[in-house]
From TrEMBL:
<feature type="signal peptide">
    <location>
        <begin position="1"/>
        <end position="18"/>
    </location>
</feature>
<keyword id="KW-0732">Signal</keyword>
<dbReference type="InterPro" id="IPR015943">
    <property type="entry name" value="WD40/YVTN_repeat-like_dom_sf"/>
</dbReference>
<protein>
    <recommendedName>
        <fullName>WD40 repeat domain-containing protein</fullName>
    </recommendedName>
</protein>
<dbReference type="InterPro" id="IPR011044">
    <property type="entry name" value="Quino_amine_DH_bsu"/>
</dbReference>
Length: 598
């Protein structure tokens, strides 16, 4: 049977109830029109940031219908992939197709080829499987693609795992009869990679960030550790940002500090020798550790530029750095630095780094390329937007948040265009490209510990107390609906961290007692895992297919760096076993379900 190149509608249940935040949504200034598929239309895009969604960072075009050839009219490079998605009037994705790399044509077979290629299958294997399916079971592939996405609650990875397992079984058996098996969503037990003696400076909240599988953290006051979370044996490269000599000089006269700056280049050579790269296979070294006073040290980090650079918020020991291109000339303690991680030198001479010193920076966000960075000035209640290379100030934005609505958390969209500023009962969305305030939304959440975008920027997640609140946005970034889910079992178990999957389709909410994995589109549970008693979670991040946690033991005051495997590596499926290939059952067909209007 020959495969037809018609669109493959997928109907999913999405029961996000309206009214969780009440009224009072007021767009400020000119609203932003972002191109997105509405009911009855298709949106094709070049998935530049490879997150599996058409979002604010992607070139796209709307199609009334897909031509018989499957052409989308886009012009991807040989390394780019085109996506085609259908969304309903509530901005919920109801269909997804993939083109092969470098191609602008999409179909069910191209989606299968793309998934097999990403899985690492050879061209011969792909041709054999696709030929078998295309000539005998093409129509079944259409219905199974839709069914696999529906049963996986819009989780792309789980959907492709189920589809590939079904396809392999059909091709092997040769009769078109195979079971569409739900992919596993089991979370592995977290294992400790290393631990630090953290009895000193116990009030400090350490930082954790990831880019792909690369993780950067500061489990000691003056040090960053860069490591690959996917490696079987984790080893790190140590990077010292605040040498002990600077701390010793912090309270000395300015003349002495300036004199010391003149010889700091020579000191960097000494520190490079004395502070060689340290592996996690042994306990991180203790000599030369700088213990800063409470409130000083690294307060924010984010990896950019394929993990070759990082933006660092550092509440410095002496306030002695002033960026040459930043507008402010104040000698405040909070410095924003762009730190290069690509070389092997352990010590970073921050006086030479692109920097912006200001007395109020407390939060930061940056696009993945590091071309633009935003920092929140808590003192002036102002958002600073800077060039990512030079940290030259591009604009300052007053979002009208201060006092009881002071900003508590900040997140950036997948394409790097929008920033979400979360406060007590308030959420402000800002367009960084031109400084416009896009929307001010209200809700019934209290203090916010973290905010993040999901589903290609069409959802915003807020962690507050024991709950995760979800706001669904329309094309103009205005609220369509809202919902909330309780993750912690009591008021003593607040959500400590949110970690959103790279594709934005799911997220992990972490408390001191458990890890909850949930679908972003349906806000339903996928899996959970309990944590050892007595742990206090500080941060969590997703590094490739691993969830990495930073936690403190209640009894021994040890900081533990833990990681666990997740099913997120199911993006391209798994090898089909002989048993699966001979399983006989009816081919799955998509189920039609009711949709709840916003």
């Amino acid at each position: 049977m020959r495969l037809t190149l018609k669109p493959l509608p997928l109907l999913i249940a999405l029961s996000l109830t309206a009214g969780c935040g009440g009224g009072g949504d007021t767009p400020v200034g000119t609203t932003v029109s972002t191109q997105s598929a509405s009911s009855g239309s298709l949106l094709a895009c070049i998935d530049a940031n490879t997150n599996g969604h058409c979002d604010d960072g992607d070139a796209s075009r709307l199609l009334d219908s897909l031509p018989a050839t499957g052409a989308t009219g886009l012009s991807p490079t040989s390394s780019q992939r085109v996506l085609l998605e259908r969304r309903d009037s509530a901005n919920r994705r109801t269909g997804l197709w993939l083109a092969e790399t470098g191609s602008a044509q999409v179909s069910a077979l191209s989606s299968l080829r793309a998934a097999l290629a990403a899985q690492g299958r050879s061209a011969t294997t792909i041709d054999t499987l696709v030929t078998a399916l295309g000539t005998r079971h093409g129509s079944a592939l259409e219905s199974t693609l839709a069914a696999s996405l529906a049963t996986a609650q819009q989780q792309q990875g789980l959907a492709w795992q189920a589809l590939l397992a079904w396809s392999g079984a059909v091709a092997t058996a040769g009769d078109g009869a195979a079971t569409l098996t739900a992919a596993s969503s089991t979370l592995a037990a977290p294992a400790t990679a290393t631990q630090w003696d953290a009895s000193a400076d116990g009030s400090a909240r350490r930082q954790l960030t990831a880019y792909g599988s690369q993780v950067l953290n500061n489990s000691e006051s003056n040090r960053l550790y860069l490591f690959d979370a996917s490696a079987e044996t984790v080893s790190s490269r140590e990077i010292d940002l605040v040498p002990a000599q600077r701390v010793a000089l912090a309270d000395q006269p300015p003349l002495l500090r300036r004199a010391w700056a003149m010889v700091e280049g020579a000191v960097s050579l000494f520190v490079d020798t004395a502070s060689a790269a340290t592996g996690f296979t042994t306990t991180p070294r203790q000599e030369e550790v700088v213990t800063l006073a409470p409130g000083l040290g690294i307060t924010g980090i984010t990896l950019v530029n394929a993990a070759q650079d990082a933006f660092v918020l550092l509440n410095m020991a002496d306030g002695g750095h002033t960026g040459s291109s930043c507008e402010t000339t104040s000698q405040g303690r909070e410095g924003l630095f762009r730190v290069g991680l690509g070389d092997t030198a352990s010590y970073r001479w921050l006086a030479q780094a692109p920097a912006c010193v200001h007395s109020g920076f407390s939060l930061l966000a940056a696009d993945a390329a590091g071309s633009r960075v935003a920092a929140w000035d808590a003192t002036g209640a102002t958002l600073w937007v800077m060039d990512g290379s030079t940290l030259a100030l591009q604009r300052r934005i007053d979002p009208g948040l201060s006092g009881s609505t002071a900003v508590q958390a900040m997140g950036i969209s997948a394409g790097g265009r929008f920033v979400a500023l979360a406060a007590y009962g308030r959420l402000t969305l800002v367009d960084l490209s031109d400084g416009r305030l896009v929307a001010q939304l209200t809700g019934d959440w209290g203090n916010v510990t973290q905010v993040a975008f999901a589903q290609g920027g069409r959802r915003v997640l807020l962690a507050s107390a024991q709950n995760v609140h979800t706001l669904v946005l329309d094309d103009q970034m205005q609220r369509l609906s809202a919902s909330s889910v309780t993750v912690g079992s009591s008021s003593d178990e607040p959500v400590r961290a949110l970690a959103v999957a790279a594709d934005g389709d799911s997220y992990f909410a972490v408390t001191d007692q458990r890890i909850a994995w949930r679908a972003a589109a349906t806000d339903s549970a996928l899996a959970s895992r309990s944590l050892d008693a007595g742990m206090s979670v500080q941060q969590a991040t997703l590094a490739g297919t691993r969830l990495v946690l930073l936690a403190r033991g209640a009894q021994d005051q040890q900081l533990r760096l833990m990681r666990l495997s997740t099913p997120l590596n199911a993006t391209v499926g798994t090898t089909v076993s002989t048993t699966q290939a001979t399983t006989t059952a009816t081919t799955a067909t998509p189920a039609t379900v009711a949709r709840t209007g916003a």
